[in-house]
Write a structure and sequence with these properties.
It is a single chain. The chain is an all-alpha fold and 290 residues long. It folds into 2 domains: 225 residues, Hypothetical protein, domain 2 (Endonuclease III, domain 1, Orthogonal Bundle), CATH 1.10.340; 55 residues, Winged helix-like DNA-binding domain superfamily/Winged helix DNA-binding domain (Arc Repressor Mutant, subunit A), CATH 1.10.10.10. Helices cover 52% and strands 3% of the residues. It has a 3-stranded antiparallel sheet. Strand 2 and strand 3 form a beta hairpin. The radius of gyration is 21 Å and the shape is globular. 34% of the residues are buried. The model has no long low-confidence stretch (mean pLDDT 93).
């Protein structure tokens, strides 16, 4: 049962073992926390840690990013992946300026109303910056809960009960709860990993239902796997954007044709990039948006 897990030991482990990441530093403000959480959605923490300070040095407030040229935002986003997140982040900055006077709101519903901010990100900002009590559930938390509470080796597809499961583990005190929220996430990232869990280093191993059951194999539904990147439309899109980030002039169709071996796939990539607002196609050339 959730109440049987030693949350105090988990909190002590986190305070002793937590990684030194920029967004965990006391001076990090709410805007920095929001930026980091959007970057972290589909990018490894080690990569975000390299880029976040550069980003915030250039655009330290929502107003700064709101006023930035979009092509510079896309260039700065660089290789963080899924560049539509950069556009959404700029839209979020503009909404914060227009609706909240440039201050990142604390209320989860107000955060959820911002473009590009989903349930996880809204709760993460409210908990990790403001110290409020909310369950924060990502892939790592879901895996820890699946194993420690439900005795299953994998979490399977996301379910509505995930938030309730995580909330049942939180202490009543908001500040204590915020520590547990990040500790669960850190445990899944460092110890209770998907492929090689280090149970000997786990602070809650003695209470883990999966370990007590003898590590039974997972037999439930699995989340769909992402398609292979090599040779995909996603790779073609990334190749075009990478070329455009290095140019101060538009990319001609003839130059684009040299970037990718499959003309039909290249055309799909260009069309989808334009549909997403990541590029502008004009005549026989393509450029980054203004």
């Amino acid at each position: 049962m959730p109440g049987d897990l030693p949350m105090n030991e988990l909190a002590e482990w986190y305070l002793d073992s937590a990684r030194d990441l920029p967004w965990r530093r006391p001076e990090f403000d709410a805007w920095g926390t929001l930026v980091s959480e959007i970057m972290l959605q589909q990018t490894q923490a080690s990569r975000v840690a390299v880029e976040i300070d550069r980003w915030l040095t250039r655009w330290p407030t929502p107003a700064d990013l709101a006023d930035a040229p979009t092509h510079e935002v896309l260039r700065q986003w660089g290789t963080l992946g899924y560049p539509r997140r950069a556009l959404r982040l700029q839209d979020t900055a503009r909404a914060i300026v227009e609706r909240h006077g440039g201050a990142v709101p604390r209320d989860v519903d107000a955060l959820l109303a911002l473009p590009g901010v989903g349930d996880y990100t809204a709760r993460a900002v409210a908990v990790f910056h403001y110290g409020d009590r909310h369950p924060v559930v990502d892939t790592n938390v879901r895996r820890v809960v699946a194993r420690a509470v439900h005795g299953q080796g994998e979490a399977g597809p996301a379910r509505r009960r995930d938030l309730a499961d995580a909330e049942a583990l939180l202490p009543a005190d908001a500040r204590d709860a915020s520590v547990i929220s990040i500790a669960l996430m850190e445990l899944g990232a460092l110890v209770c990993t998907a492929r090689k869990p280090a149970c000997e280093a786990c602070p809650i191993a003695d209470a883990c239902a999966w370990r007590a059951a003898g590590y039974p194999p997972y037999e439930g539904r699995r989340a769909p796997r992402q398609s292979t990147f090599a040779g995909s439309d996603r790779q073609a899109r990334g190749t075009v954007l990478r070329a455009l980030r290095g140019l101060d002039v538009p990319l001609t169709d003839a130059e684009a044709a040299q970037l990718w071996h499959d003309a039909e796939q290249l055309e799909r990539a260009l069309a989808s990039l334009a549909a997403d607002g990541l590029v502008v196609r004009a005549g026989a050339s393509t450029r980054l948006p203004d």
